[in-house]
Amino acid sequence: MSDTLRQVGIDIQESEENRGLVAAIRADNPELTVRHLPGLVKIQAAGQIVINRETVERELGREWETGEFQLAIVSFAGNLSEWDDDQIIVKWEH
Known about the structure:
Order of helices and strands: EHEEEHHEEE
Pfam families: MmoB_DmpM
Strand content: 35-45%
Protein name: MmoB/DmpM family protein
Number of helices: 3
Mean pLDDT: 94
InterPro entries: MOase_MmoB_DmpM (IPR003454), mOase_MmoB_DmpM_sf (IPR036889)
Largest sheet: 4 strands, antiparallel
Number of strands: 7
Radius of gyration: 13 Å
Helix content: 25-40%
Oligomer: single chain
GO molecular function, one term: monooxygenase activity
Family: Belongs to the TmoD/XamoD family.
């Protein structure tokens, strides 16, 4: 069995509103790879990506509901293993 963690990823639509979301994801996941493409931000990490509501709210300067995440993402690779009012975690379950 390999100890290598599989990559997970989130593609987010590039927009002024989503810059705070991307900054928050970077803050909570310092080992990320972030690539900016025309109109798209591709975020990848080994193992998992965690999105904390409090961090997003701090970056946006307003309240943020985790349900707004659906408006920002274009696609993702992995499973949404946790999604509640405070946190979203994307990782592979198997």
